[in-house]
Design a protein that fits this description.
With 466 residues, this protein is an alpha/beta fold. It folds into four domains: 54 residues, no CATH class; 127 residues, no CATH class; 113 residues, Rossmann fold; 144 residues, no CATH class. Helix content is 45%, strand content 8%. It is built from 15 helices and ten strands. It has a six-stranded mixed beta sheet with strand order 3-2-1-4-5-6. A two-stranded parallel ribbon has the order 7-8. A two-stranded antiparallel ribbon has the order 9-10. Helix 9 links the parallel strand 4 and strand 5. The protein is flat, with a radius of gyration of 30 Å.
């Protein structure tokens, strides 16, 4: 380089990053030298890094499936060896582990088919500790059914009941543990350890405020902004528009949302914010933002932010509701399916021209059809309702499926009070486990008595009230 006219400076702190040899371009180059060169030049990893980031969702899905299979097999082995340690306590000896391999293989293969049907690997699944635990409980229940079906299909006495009973709690704990570890490793760890990743929701006029990031409270870092206006180019890091809110929160592991005052809050946006708040995402509204926009000085703590509170139904107390939905829903499906299928083969069970409230919600048990409608099939088209109930997408008590706000899951039975149907907001504020049971007990009266309802009434629109 010096002979070519370049000015060359030799400094003592420089180091050679590529062990150059004249033989480095030859095929006789040693394998160790190839590996050292590949590791030193990290640019060569660029394609792999890009593929890993671009296919992140696929990697997470593969990691989830593999960790579930690992938890399943580890739980089986742990239950077997615990039973082996307790062998002196039991009168009958334990068979060898080889006799369990067919059962383990059957459960592994069947779980790859059954668990995706339960919604465990859905891309819209929540990531809070409560949702991870509920998903683990649901998966443990279905895998336990697979284990029992495997023992029944074998028609042998080689499987110890103690091993199968020990498997259930060990598998549940392994699923919950792998779920939490997976969220910390693949989710970028706990964002609240140093600084909470925050997302700003703003209109076009609020995006280019220079002090937008500084207006946040201490301990919150601005990861980006979402705008309600399409085609707006901002000085801030714009991650999309409001329609991408849930996707952005999940992709960037957002821990807090800050809303500008000029943002338009539609019922759909309110419903999304409620769901995110229920999933441990903090939601704040805007006092410090106005100070930043007006050019006023604001403290480093970010001024006065008001945090939105979560209704009881959308908080951790809803775990009891999910347990009730699953247990009673399973009993309802087992009891109702035989007569439901029998009656559905006899023709139309119900013929009404307007949607009415019937026992346990006719949307699941009886299809409400217009008389003579040849476009619909009786009964069979509503069977997926039972599957949706067991997957957690439906609730026993909740608003109608045509509710646009989406604050809560739609229900088979509508929330009734004094013969009227509560709207979603009133139901969230009033909810309790006893109120759900009361609504279930009122459904027969709503069908056969004077409590029949033909439309949903909000508390503001009740007859005789202003």
């Amino acid at each position: 380089m010096w002979e070519a006219g370049w000015e060359v400076h030799f400094l003592p702190e420089l180091r050679l990053v590529h062990g150059f040899r004249r033989s480095s371009t030859r095929m006789s180059r040693s394998l160790v030298h190839h590996v050292r060169s590949f590791l030193n030049f990290y640019d060569k990893w660029g394609a792999l890094v890009y593929a890993a980031r671009h296919l992140r969702d696929a990697w997470v899905l593969v990691a989830t499936v593999l960790s579930d299979l690992a938890a399943l097999n580890i739980a089986f082995l742990a239950a077997f060896f615990v039973r082996r340690l307790l062998d002196p306590v039991f009168p009958q000896p334990l068979f060898d582990l080889v006799d369990y391999w067919p059962l383990i293989a059957w459960v592994n293969a069947a779980s790859l088919i059954v668990l995706p049907m339960t919604g465990r690997y859905s891309s819209t699944a929540a990531h809070s500790k409560t949702s991870i635990t509920l998903s683990a409980i649901r998966a443990t229940f279905f895998v336990s059914l697979l284990v029992m079906s495997g023992t029944w299909l074998s028609h042998t006495q080689t499987f110890s009941r103690a091993v199968l009973l020990l498997f259930v709690p060990i598998y549940l704990g392994a699923l919950a543990l792998t779920g939490w570890l997976r969220e910390r490793v693949l989710g970028g760890g706990d964002a609240r350890v140093s600084e909470t990743r925050s997302l700003a929701l703003a209109s076009a006029s609020e995006l280019d405020v220079p002090g937008l990031g500084d207006a946040l409270p201490a301990g919150y870092g601005l990861a980006g902004v979402l705008t309600s206006d399409s085609g707006v180019v901002s000085l801030q890091r714009q991650l999309g528009n409001l329609g991408d809110l849930e996707v952005v929160v999940d992709r960037y592991r957002i821990g807090a949302l800050f809303l500008g005052r000029r943002i338009e809050t539609s019922p759909r946006l309110v419903a999304i914010l409620q769901r995110l708040a229920a999933d441990s995402v903090e939601v704040y509204v805007d006092e410090a933002w106005n100070a930043a926009m007006a050019g006023q000085a604001h403290s480093s703590s970010g001024g006065n932010w008001s945090q939105l509170r979560v209704p009881p139904l959308l908080g951790r107390a809803a775990v009891a509701k999910s347990v009730m939905d699953f247990s009673l829903g399973l009993m309802l499906a087992l009891v109702s399916l035989p007569p439901f299928l029998l009656l559905s083969t006899l023709g139309f069970v119900f013929g009404v021209r307007r949607r009415t409230v019937t026992i346990l919600g006719t949307q699941a048990l009886w299809r409400e059809l217009s008389v003579g409608d040849e476009r619909s099939l009786p009964g069979w088209t509503q069977l997926p309702r039972f599957v949706e109930l067991l997957r957690g997408h439906l609730s026993l008590v909740g608003p109608g499926g045509d509710a646009q706000a989406g604050l809560v899951r739609p229900g088979l039975a509508l929330p009734l009070i004094s013969g009227e149907v509560l709207d979603e907001t009133a139901y969230c504020q009033r909810w309790s486990l006893a109120f759900d049971i009361e609504c279930l007990l009122r459904q027969p009266g709503a069908l056969f008595g004077a409590g029949r309802v033909t439309r949903s009434l909000t508390p503001e629109s009740r007859p005789g009230e202003e």
